[in-house]
Input
Amino acid sequence: MPKRVDHEARRQEISAALWRIASTRGLDGASLRDVAAEAGISLGRLQHYFRTRDEMLVFALRHINRLATQRVHERIEALGGEPTPREVLRACLSGMLPLDDRSRTGLLVGAAYYARAVHDEGVRAEAKSGIPHLRAFFAGQLQLAAERGELAPERATEDEAMLLISVTDGLATHVLLDVHDPETALRLLDLHLSKLFGDDAPAPTEGTSH
Output
């Protein structure tokens, strides 16, 4: 068991080295040799954990997705008590925005993966595998909100859930491109939620700190 834990930890350290490269110059320049140098190990040692570059790329993508999911769960738990569906949705969606250095790095790495996924079937399959689950979770929250009388029933659909994902992805991209700053992206997200839930409530102040 100790060897297994150490093996997983080393793979995660290699993934972190790959992310550092990807966040500054993309994945095209991230060879096994480059990643080994960034991780401070020999190429042969790296190949003990990853036989091929593709194997390393897919593992690293899975790991960063797990960390992103963990970050969203932390935001939901920070709400405390029994949060409303709208509060859960906002916590999840704001967790998908680059509001601090950690989330910005994660999204930069994700952008590098998406660029590669267009032409790489293996990476593409992994990159899109979580979307149906996220859409279903958001649709479930919308349905719960409708049952509680907080949302018009006709808005509690998977299409609306997909629009939430798409709007947030677009806002995240614009922050990375410096079209918006994080505060503006969060304000626009709140505006979209206000329109979805049919109210003109002012944007909440919680969760705006980085």
Residues 58 and 209 are 32 Å apart (CA to CA). Confidence is low (pLDDT under 50) at residues 201-210. The chain has ten helices and no strands.
